[in-house]
Amino acid sequence: MAHEPGAPVRVALLGCGVVGSSVARLLTEHADDLAARVGAPLELVGIAVRRPQRPRPDVPVDPSLFTADAEELVTRADVVVEVIGGIDPARGLILRAMEHGAGVVSANKALVAEDGPTLFEAAARNGVDLYYEAAVAGAIPILRPVRESLAGDRVRRVMGIVNGTTNFVLDKMDVSGAGFAETVEEAQALGYAEADPTADVEGFDAAAKAAILASLAFHTRVSSAHVHREGITEVSAADIRAARENDCVVKLLAICERVTASGSDAVSVRVHPAMVPRSHPLASVREAFNAVFVEAEAAGELMFYGRGAGGDPTASAVLGDLVAVARQRVSGGHGPGESAYADLPVVDLGQAVTRYHISLDVADRPGVLAQVAAVFAEQGVSIETVRQQAGPEDDGRARLIVVTHRATDAALSATVEDLAALESVDDVVSVMRVEGA
Amino acid sequence: MAHEPGAPVRVALLGCGVVGSSVARLLTEHADDLAARVGAPLELVGIAVRRPQRPRPDVPVDPSLFTADAEELVTRADVVVEVIGGIDPARGLILRAMEHGAGVVSANKALVAEDGPTLFEAAARNGVDLYYEAAVAGAIPILRPVRESLAGDRVRRVMGIVNGTTNFVLDKMDVSGAGFAETVEEAQALGYAEADPTADVEGFDAAAKAAILASLAFHTRVSSAHVHREGITEVSAADIRAARENDCVVKLLAICERVTASGSDAVSVRVHPAMVPRSHPLASVREAFNAVFVEAEAAGELMFYGRGAGGDPTASAVLGDLVAVARQRVSGGHGPGESAYADLPVVDLGQAVTRYHISLDVADRPGVLAQVAAVFAEQGVSIETVRQQAGPEDDGRARLIVVTHRATDAALSATVEDLAALESVDDVVSVMRVEGA
Predict the structure, then answer these.
(1) Superfamily for domain range A352-434
(2) Which of A13, A73, A230, B248 has the maximal Cβ count within 10 Å?
(3) How confident is the model over B250-283, as pLDDT tens digits?
(4) What residues form the catalytic site here (chains A, B) (predicted)?
């Protein structure tokens, strides 16, 4: 619908937690700049919260703007900003807002990754914009570059560190040599991990972001349910040490790849810890920072780096989207809608092609290396390097460290199973994928 | 003007050099993808070149598309892609295209930086889009993120490595210890530097990009003429060595900062070589890669990294813009136009605030350090560290290495002048700004 010249753009905010408070504050502090960039003032018409009476001294707005009636609020806005998170009631409110003609800006990775198509179809049906830059990698502009800047290119692979908590934990483990459990406690004490860190450390958060990135990069539909997910709870101090000895760091990666399956184009989307060579740009992403590495056919290698979470960084991304949606509302026209024309199948993990780094404790006697090598050969997995270390004690044991060439995950995984069953192998000490080499 | 549903979007290409050939090839190879993303097929209606008869086997298009009559070609296109470069005839052709109602995609940094306002005004007057992502940092999406993703934030500083040739030369000098002249020869032999490398090594190319970045980041008008420019021709092996000893690398930086001058907001835009600590993300940008580091009030620190030049990478950026302009043509609406509402003055270099690293050869006798320190104090420049090294020979000389705190460039520059005039100072061996600390 046409916007009346000069009239303010009415903005409704759903949620006033860490991100919502930042959005409300920046809307107030930057009002003049935002008006100049949009072409009309942004008027905050309400903030939906569970307890509207609660004092919020850090949110510099008229207290009468707080309301518990989100259902009503969304019917009187031109743009609705949703920073509640979770599936319900966020989904219902977004759909209701669109039915009433409002554009929507959301930071809700879980919802977009689980049920994006429902939202995209509603946006198209109602002729409104739906933007969600803040859902992936916080402040880092990554969805707009993938969706718009690379629209003339063909993306081959997206490989990202998209969860700050797990990167913080893995980075600390690398620096301190400590184990997973105690490092998570430290991260909790410092505010980098939630009291219940499951969504982060089990990779659910990263998997939602991977689904969103894959959908945009490959113009197809990928939901969280399609993403193979492994968290970092099994990453041990021994794994980190093995990575160091291999001149690598361990990162939790979200990997979205264009692959060929049964002769046709397909996509592979997976989240798991992996060794990354220290010389790779992703290896230098420290602490709770995020970064997304993109390989495109014409553009080559790109990387986007910045803060992946936090109130102000996430609010920056939300406001960038808000300016776009509001500007389009004022000037006419729309941003790009969902682009899912490629409609590619998602292959399962077994078909993904990767490399493995495997540490084995074996009997230190002639013939063992030949036995081990035979197992790899039987599965058709080619060995890149094998290194033998004397065991920690003079007890007739040795450590074998094998790095493979690229093979399907199915073949690699079967190889590890067969190795574990070998009589001469005491222990499979560490198995990890190697990416970015 | 409204686009007829289903009708192709007519694209005219001006120029068919390295970038133009890639654009033509990708338009052909990716035709189906591009049509799906735009919502209508892109039809290449002509390529303007100086010699249309010349065989171009690497450009897979109908040879009859080549024409020498660019003036005529631009009148029969919906979108004109300009990859000729330089000021004229590019400017006249772009203006003519807009007058005939065509949107424009340009990779022309020199033209946008020198005379952007003329182009932006023509775009606004004719109601057409003007996009130029490829003008800065090749394939790296940087203009769209700064212009759109950060539209709700306030950018404090942009600091970029935006010239691949100079980064290649400085990186090689850092690795080999060789001097400037021989390293440029090596870069020329490898195709990383032009036969006449002036535009790159004297910083003209980077200055144009700095002007464009500053204009977008600060919503104001900055042209190349406003940019303080120093190239890398004076960077010596001794400077690189001094940087190494200071745990830094030397980079040619384009720096755009929001500053306060006489109590008001202003901008400082400068291009010069500087020492950057090895721990800074920009320090790890090797060879001919580009990267742009952005500090924004809410988003915090962001970095964008990738290939800054080359046919395919630049063509990727051009095609991303082409899809945007064509999509908007098909669906209605426009991208954001020029945003120069802030209208900030550009301060001269003397008012920029930075730090200096200074190496001096001095007489090795008591009292010299006090004399040197007095010169800094007189200019109000505070010293962060001073280190004394024994001279190379046992000849009564010593080397003093001073790193300052932040001060105005005017005060720092006056300090160096006074130091050079001291009787006890034999030689000012190296003076370099330190950034990113």
Answers:
(1) ACT domain (3.30.70.260)
(2) A13
(3) 999 999 999 998 899 999 999 999 999 998 999 9
(4) 209 (proton donor)
CA of B424 vs chain A CAs: smallest distance (Å): 44
Q: Where in chain B is the domain with CATH 3.30.70.260?
A: 352-434
Which residues from chain A sit within 8 angstroms of residue B312, using beta carbons? 297-300
pLDDT (average), residues B46-60: 95
Residue in chain B closest to A308 (alpha carbons) equals B299
Classify residue A423 by burial, with Cβ atoms within 10 Å: 0-12, 13-18, 19+: exposed
Q: Comparing C-alpha atoms, which of B6, B103, B21, B93 is closest to residue B56?
A: B21
CATH class held by domain B143-307? alpha beta
Q: Quick check: B316 and A298 CB within 8 A?
A: yes
Express each pLDDT in B74-132 by its tens digit: 999 999 999 999 999 999 999 999 999 999 999 999 999 999 999 999 999 999 999 99
Q: What is the identity of the amino acid at A178? A: A
Rounded CA-CA distance A71/A96 in Å is 8
Known binding residues of B for NADP(+): 14-21
Block residue for tokens 């192998």:
A425
The CATH number given to B9-139+312-331 is 3.40.50.720
The alpha carbon dihedral of B44, B50, B54, B59 has a sign of negative
pLDDT at B262: 86
- Chain B closest-CA separation from residue A415 CA (Å): 37
Of the residues B10, B96, B157, B209, only one is catalytic, namely B209
Structure tokens given for B166: 């100079």
Least confident of A204-213, B253-262, B387-396: B387-396
Catalytic residue among A156, A209, A251, A307: A209
Residue limits of CATH 3.30.360.10 in chain A = 143-306
- CATH 3.40.50.720 intervals, chain B: 9-139+312-331
A86 in a labelled binding site: no
- Whose tokens are 């190496």? That residue is B359
Q: Cβ contact (<8 Å) for B151 and A333?
A: no
CATH level 3 topology of A143-306? Dihydrodipicolinate Reductase; domain 2 (3.30.360)
The mean pLDDT of A55-81, rounded to a whole number, is: 96
Q: What is the pLDDT of residues A13-27, one digit of tens each?
A: 999 999 999 999 999
Cβ-defined contact of B319 to A336 (cutoff 8 Å): no
Give φ, ψ of B372 to 5 degrees. Answer: -65, -45
User: Which two tokens mark B67?
Assistant: 């024409």
Residues of A in contact with B339 (CB under 8 A): 36-37
Number of H helices, E strands in chain A: 14, 17
Q: Give the tens place of pLDDT for each residue, B352-391.
A: 999 999 999 999 888 999 999 999 999 999 999 999 987 6
How would residue A392 be classed by pLDDT, with cut points 50, 70 and 90?
low
Verify whether residue B209 is a known catalytic residue: yes
